TrEMBL record:
SMART domains: S_TKc. InterPro entries: Kinase-like_dom_sf, Plant_MAPKKK, Prot_kinase_dom, Protein_kinase_ATP_BS, Ser/Thr_kinase_AS. It comes from Eleusine coracana subsp. coracana. This is Protein kinase domain-containing protein. The gene is gb23433. One of its GO terms (biological process) is signal transduction.
Length: 300
């Protein structure tokens, strides 16, 4: 899709340095999103994000349509963000939907990591929902290329940072897997931050993770038919040691999450990780019965 003359629509998202708006191609009527910065100093960040997205081509990674000056053109996801969906469903995000969303994000991460890219800011707000039901990994503003020194060392959202990221060490694929585990907690709690209410201050949570390597505890609801192996796979994603943490392509801890042989073959799952820690014994029980949320139809 080439962008010609276009008309800017309403803003649909705002960050610390950029605004995302709807836009319409004047000639074709196609709807897309445009991420804009206010000045040329910030434009370098868009150029870096554009360069990274140009190397990615997955149905589970937001598609980049082009870059002009201070505007980055992106695929529009009509379903909004995963954070919006969680807010809408509240405590009613059932296991099947959590499994589906996490699986799609994992596929997007597997593609990015295979291309030498670390996202560095995985969370529900940065996962978009396409009209056909796909979850799409978006906002690569904090992303970096694996093994390239210089640039940003620390990036992301404090509540979702892995221990090595919180300590200011170099972020690798394992940090994305930790953040995915935290995003599962975000879904399972109906939108609660991974460390809430134990740490209301994000910086306090980050400092605790940096020192202790402790993972947030997984919620457990009696109304869920949760299989131990499912949570074991997710728990392996938040192992305190990045070197022992599950990865997209180096562990068999994720099959209960991925569910189908086709998806497993896409990830080329190989050697099992050395350790899959048990779920924390201290858990919270949900006080109310969650509403059941139906799973949207998926593209064939």
């Amino acid at each position: 899709m080439s962008i010609g003359e276009w008309i800017r629509g309403p803003a649909i998202g705002r960050g610390s340095s950029a605004t995302v708006s709807l836009a319409v191609d004047h000639r074709t009527g196609a709807v897309f999103a445009v991420k804009s910065v206010a000045d040329a100093a910030r434009a370098e960040e868009l150029r870096r994000e554009h360069s990274i997205l140009q190397d990615l081509d997955s149905p589970h990674v937001v598609r980049c349509l082009g870059l002009v000056d201070c505007d980055l053109f992106l695929e529009h996801a009509a379903g909004g963000s995963l954070a919006d969906e969680i807010k809408r469903l509240g405590a009613g995000v059932e296991e099947g939907l959590i499994r589906s969303r996490a699986r799609d994000v994992l596929l997007g991460l597997a593609h990015a990591h295979a291309a030498g890219v670390v996202h560095c800011d995985v969370k529900a707000r940065n996962v978009l929902l396409a009209a056909d039901g796909r979850a799409v990994l978006a906002d690569f503003g904090c992303a970096r290329r694996i093994g390239i020194s210089g640039g940003k060392v620390m990036g992301g959202t404090p509540m979702f940072m892995a221990p090595e990221a919180a300590r200011g060490d170099e972020q690798g694929p394992a940090a994305d897997i930790w953040a995915l585990g935290c995003t599962v907690v975000e879904m399972a709690t109906g939108g609660g931050a991974p460390w809430w209410p134990r740490f209301a201050d994000p910086m306090a949570a980050m400092q605790h993770v940096a020192v202790s390597g402790e993972a947030p505890q997984w919620p457990r609801c009696n109304t869920w038919r949760t299989r131990r192996t499912f949570w074991a796979g997710v728990s392996a994603g938040t192992h305190g040691s990045g070197g022992r943490r599950s990865s997209c392509s180096g562990t068999r801890s994720w099959p209960p999450l991925l569910a189908t042989p086709t998806i497993l073959s896409q990830l080329s799952l190989g050697r099992r990780s050395r350790s899959c820690p048990r779920r924390a014994s201290s858990t919270k029980r949900c006080g109310t019965t969650p509403r059941r949320a139906s799973l949207p139809a998926r593209a064939q």
